[in-house]
Specification:
The chain is of the alpha/beta class. 37% of the residues lie in helices and 18% in strands. An eight-stranded mixed β-sheet has the order 1-2-4-3-5-6-7-8, sandwiched between helices. The relative contact order is 0.15.
Amino acid sequence: MAFSPRIQARGIQLLLGGMISRVHKDLRFTDIPKHTEPLRVETGAGPVNCTVYRPSATTGTPAPVYVNFHGGGFVVGRPEQDDHICRYIAATADCVVINVDYAVAPQRPFPAPVTQAYDVTAWVAENGPANNWDGSRLAVGGHSAGANLTAAVCRLARDRSAFSPRLQILDSAPLDMVTDPAAKLSPLAKPLLSPQIMRVFTAAYVPDPADRADPFVSPALADDLAGLPPALVITAENDRLRDEGDAYAKALDAVGVPVTHRVFEGVDHYFTHTGPVQVGKEAIELMAATLRTALSA
């Protein structure tokens, strides 16, 4: 008997969530002190818990702020998997980092995660003085599913003119939920993402196939990209999602959005978490360096 995508997604949460969210021990940056505090933000799709990472150095001037969305196929809700990236960026980019524990499917499918991601970011932009960060100097980014949410947040911010992120970071983003995963090829015989698990993720997050072409679900299919924030787009050579990330970077550039695009060779999806270690560190440093430049301007 075949199980429904909802039941399969719940099985992934319960049985594989810990494995999926593992981080290589040599990528955890445990030598960097962590200064964190909890934060709870009310949104149009319910309250959202966040973790605030503070830079160790204090200057008396509120630091800029970066809002981070973790990966997990829109199904695995483990923001702690990005602890290493958040602590590294807070320490080296001299900014406050907000790590967002957004809702996941199948319990909360689209559009709830998009609503939460946008509302948290808008709240961060508006509430800087009370929290000792500079909401006018804001960037947003994410990894895998979190990168998809990042693109949605930036699109909503543009459309609503509520705030203007100085940078969006898209790391190994799923940007096309319409194309069948089997058509997304990798040079590897067994890449990390299989068509089967990708179909489960998509069906759990967007149960109605008619919604999968929505630009807030499939940003790569949108034809109105002008006016979006500057972007750092990171793709991995062996990732099934590489082609759509590469195409999105080109599409942004074609309409005048400033884009830094880097393809990391010889690595697969989620390499900023699982390694190889040296390449993962190089990508995380690229994120931090690009943020430093964007937020200090």
